[in-house]
Amino acid sequence: MTTEAELLTSDDQRLEELFRKSSAGEIPIGPMEGRAVFPVAGRAGARLITSLVNLTAWRGKVFSPDGYLSNRLTAMDILSIVATVGPGPSRLDDQECIVIDYSHTSLVFAGVRDEVRQVGPGLYLGLIWLAGRKIGWFTLRDPANAENSNA
């Protein structure tokens, strides 16, 4: 089984392989813990940068049942940067994924599109696109699912 800790230290090729072989899964409902993934920083660097981003900037997403989400920002868990959520084809392989689209909800982030697939129970791998270019990865984890945590 894939864990969040493994994803955080995987290289770009491994993340892409896992994303390609995973199915979209169900769209989550409620708060999800998130971690930015930085494969270019190497194993030790990736963990450090991920921790810094989590403490100071992005902490995850909150999915609502009406097809929207808000991003969880800063240590104060401020909800901001709304997006629409629904199934759709991935830009990576044209297979179904969960599409998080900011183009109709945010002027600043209009060029951002996230694509998510479920890689384990309560664990998702996300791919970030900016203006049609793949720029990064992130994880989303159901906080109630302890077996995939970073502990």
Overall pLDDT score: 88
The SSE string, one letter per element, is HHEHEEEEEEE
Largest sheet: 8 strands, antiparallel, barrel
Helical stretch tally: 3
Task: Provide a brief overview of the structure.
The protein is α+β, with helices and mostly antiparallel strands and 151 residues long.
Description:
This protein has 151 residues and is of the alpha+beta class. It is built from 3 helices and 8 strands. An 8-stranded antiparallel β-barrel has the order 1-2-3-4-5-6-7-8. Strand 4 and strand 5 form a beta hairpin. The longest helix is centred in the N-terminal third of the chain and has 15 residues, at 42-56.
Question: Topology of this structure?
Answer:
Blueprint: H1 4-8, H2 12-21, E1 30-37, H3 42-56, E2 58-63, E3 68-73, E4 78-89, E5 96-101, E6 112-120, E7 123-130, E8 133-141
Antiparallel strand pairs: 1-2, 1-8, 2-3, 3-4, 4-5, 5-6, 6-7, 7-8
Keywords:
151 residues; 8-stranded antiparallel β-barrel; alpha+beta; single chain; 8 strands; 20% helix; 3 helices
